[in-house]
Design brief:
The chain is of the alpha/beta class. Helix content is 37%, strand content 23%. The structure holds adenosine-5'-triphosphate and magnesium ion. Residues 76, 78, 81 line the site of magnesium ion.
């Protein structure tokens, strides 16, 4: 890739709905903003419908007048999604089947307990010579193709799929060609919703265009991506980041769990090791996810002693000695059972702390009193046991992840000896 001041950049937004008066086309605004952050300017912006002929024309024009082309939308599995095929046609390149890509897409369906529809197979094809980016929030992969004459990037249409893919894979690549010194930082937050974060920091959004703030929301986690670009030196850019980071830290306090890229399980692991403490876990609805996340961290054997999955009532009684009377009286998804599970986990493994999770991940099994998403998370410590009642939104997988996130975050806050500030979850 060779990108310089003269290189023309074009965005193509694909989708017939974009040409109606009812639709706000926002992808190109986001892309333009982030390109500008890097000191790169957009020369052309094309909106085109789903018809193959029109799309082909738009792509041909873009190839002839622009060097970097970023197209969004039309990567889905359905008949009207034609961006990939049409670009291949314009470039006279073959589509190549990628077995590992198909596996990734199939796994995504399996996790949601769905059969992959046959039409999705087409998303496992990439254009000859291109690289692909996996899509964490959907099925359509992104593509990057450098033909020598053009660099073409294909991105999925839904903004919640496009943005994380860009933040992770596209901007770091283009940064190298920036006319500025660019410094970035990611602040990771647990325990607050995106809208809460927004209201807490909205007045900190800088007026200067040299610093940009992007908030990305995932289940159980919000991330603030800070980018600064300076003309003179890297030090200047880093100084700008430091200033805004300090303001954010003052505002969001210990709701921020990481400023250096670490995941929550790594932060908790470091704290446990630092304090020379150990942990045991008892899980019901998360089916081992919490133990899995903890043990994804190298060296976790230093502090993680035991994890049990007690899915049935019988398992809770047999493996953890939970009293049948408590189960009978309050039900498996209850404050009392969560409390007993955390205490039993701690005691059985002779650990410093016990964490437990019991809830209803859905989509079935909910009732008016105990809705889908109701999850009790408990932490047993030397000072007693704390239980938090949560009602998590989203599908089964999201409920499970948020449950594990909550458990890790309870322990993190405890280990940091800080109160659960600002967070207004029902306790
Ligand atoms: P999918 O697999 O979801 O079909 P796709 O890559 O084919 O992904 P599209 O079908 O083009 O994407 O768009 C899916 C949805 O994403 C649209 O219905 C719209 O809500 C949103 N979207 C697409 N393009 C844009 C855009 N340019 N600006 C804002 N939202 C968009
Ligand atoms: Mg589509």
């Amino acid at each position: 890739m060779r990108l310089n001041r003269e290189s023309k950049i074009e965005i193509i937004a694909v989708g017939s709905e974009l040409l109606t008066p009812f639709f706000n086309e926002t992808n190109s605004l986001y892309l333009t903003q982030r390109l500008n952050d890097l000191g790169l300017e957009v020369s052309f912006k094309t909106l085109v419908g789903d018809e193959r002929e029109n799309l082909l024309k738009a792509i041909r024009v873009a190839l002839s007048r622009s060097y970097l082309i970023i197209a969004t939308g039309g990567l889905g599995p359905t008949e009207d999604d034609k961006t990939r095929e049409t670009l291949a046609e314009a470039l006279q390149r073959k589509l190549i089947f990628k077995e590992d890509l198909l596996k990734t897409i199939e796994r995504r369906f399996k996790r949601r307990r769905l059969e992959m529809p046959a039409v999705n197979k087409k998303q496992a094809y990439i254009i000859e010579g291109s690289e692909f980016f996996k899509n964490k929030n959907g099925t359509a992969p992104g593509l990057w193709l450098d033909t020598g004459n053009n660099v073409i990037v294909l991105l999925p249409g839904p903004p919640h799929e496009l943005k994380p893919m860009c933040e992770e894979s596209i901007w770091p690549r283009l940064e190298k060609f920036s006319r500025f010194y660019v410094s970035r930082k990611v602040l990771k937050i647990a325990g607050l919703t995106e809208s809460k974060v927004e209201t807490l920091i909205s007045d900190l959004y800088p007026k200067a265009i040299s610093v940009s703030i992007n908030t990305l929301a995932y289940p159980g986690q919000v991330e603030i991506h800070l980018t600064a670009h300076a003309l003179k030196s890297m030090k200047e850019a880093e100084g700008m980041i430091k200033k805004i980071e300090e303001q954010m830290l003052a505002r969001l306090g210990n709701n921020i769990f990481s400023t250096s890229g670490e995941e929550l399980e790594e932060v908790v692991g470091k704290l446990l090791r630092f304090k020379n403490k150990t942990l045991a876990v008892a899980e019901s609805c998360t089916g081992g996810l919490l133990s899995n996340r903890i043990t994804n961290v190298p060296g976790s054997a230093d502090y993680f002693l035991q994890g049990v999955v007690v899915y049935s009532n019988k398992a809770k009684i047999d493996s953890l000695d939970i009293s049948p009377a408590i189960l009978q009286k309050h039900g498996a998804v209850s404050l009392q059972v969560a409390e007993a599970m955390a205490e039993a986990a701690k005691k059985r493994a002779n650990a410093s702390y016990g964490l437990s999770i019991t809830g209803i991940a859905g989509p079935t099994g909910g009732s008016a009193q105990k809705p889908v998403g109701l999850v009790y998370v408990a932490l047993a410590t030397e000072k007693g046991t704390k239980v938090i009642k949560n009602i998590f939104p989203g599908n089964r997988k999201n409920v499970k992840f948020q449950s594990s996130q909550k458990a890790l975050d309870m322990l993190r806050r405890y280990l940091q000896k800080m109160p659960t500030v600002i967070n207004k979850t029902k306790e």
